[in-house]
Known about the structure:
The complex is a heterodimer of chains A (about 230) and B (about 190).
Chain A: H1 2-23, E1 43-49, E2 57-59, E3 84-92, E4 98-108, E5 120-129, E6 133-142, H2 144-156, E7 161-169, E8 171-173, E9 180-187, E10 193-206, E11 210-221, H3 224-233
Antiparallel strand pairs in A: 1-11, 2-3, 3-4, 4-5, 5-6, 6-8, 6-9, 7-10, 9-10, 10-11
Chain B: H1 2-22, E1 35-37, E2 43-51, E3 55-59, E4 82-90, E5 96-107, E6 110-119, E7 123-129, E8 138-146, E9 153-163, E10 174-185
Amino acid sequence: MKYLIALVLGAVTGAALFVVALIYNPFVADRGISPLAVSQSELVALNFSAVPSDTLVFTNDGNSTKKPHPEKVLQLWEAPVRKTSAMATVLRDARSQTAGIGVKFSSLSERTRLLQGDALVDSVWYVYLPKQGSLFIQQSENYWAFLRDVSWPAIRSGANNWKGNWVGDVTDGPGVLGTALVTGGTGVFQGLKMEGVESLIARAYSADQGPIAAEGQLLIELPETGAEATAAAD
Amino acid sequence: MFKTFIVGIVLGIAAAAAGLHLYPVVDQHREASIVSVAANGGNVEAFHANVPMDRIMIGAPGQSTALPAGLEWPADEMLQNVRVELFKIRDARDAVVGVAARTSASNGATEIIDWMLHLPARGSVYVNMRPESLPGGYRQGELRAGSREFDQWSGRMTERWVRNSSADEEAPAGRIELVTTFVGRQEAT
């Protein structure tokens, strides 16, 4: 009997060690510098709040850490959309002036592989910038570094929250350099194929409520013709 | 007994690794697609949003009743001519299969109507509609981009408002009917 107890205790310890090793896996490297940081092309930066209560509308299944906003918004409880969230938010330029409207749909990805440090989300953005036009952004996002550096410490802390300064790119593809694919739809962007990166700056996070203070940014690299066109539109 | 404990640790690590490798962390629910073949080739698939029950948001200036309750549309002049609506979308069996956004805006002489459809287990499509209405109340648009299953596809989509003709009190006021026709890969066109 005592051998059985020792075996079970050993198995539980082994599983716990595995989880710890998984979280602090030294072979899962951070991505480091953004692929657009060294771009010579003109970049469009669009900022938005990553806190659900600061958006126009945020909805999901209603049982996730992030709570729907406003409270009475229709929730996505049906099985095919239960792992999906929808957000509409105001996008602001670098001077914090309203630049347009963004709609983001995100779904947990079946390509998620925690063993490889891939906590993936498939997402798309629709961006409308008055006077300029519309854009469609498709990307896969990897939240592994965010989970490891922000969510996990928040869960571990006695107060169930985290404060600090976490900055990182969440875009992880499908572009070769880990960039999002951006397609111009209308206006000055019509017909343009571009690349983009979504990044996140988190300052406070609660294990119960999700982000408390966090901002997101969409960085879009314009091709030369696009840069000339947006300059003309301005 | 210590050796047994060590064996347990090894077994625990192996079991956790095998479980994580074999058991999918995310498994999206799939409804069987209802696709028909168009006479000139390509796949035809119809979606719809029942109004008002599938409408998640109406974002527009000057709304007398906000949807959802509590929505505060920004008063910024920049967004005065923009209207954004979010919907759940259903397949031909009336099962919810995804979400969609419809944006309409007028920019001086130009009118823009865009749709973005997101089907979680399959991918997303982005469609530019032509603003003019066709006979029969249709509006037609071109598929500009798609992700995952719809990557590289080209085609078109129609939208139409279909008023409810049923006397059932619980029936929707009507539905927005979206019919996609994906005719091939972009490289081939």
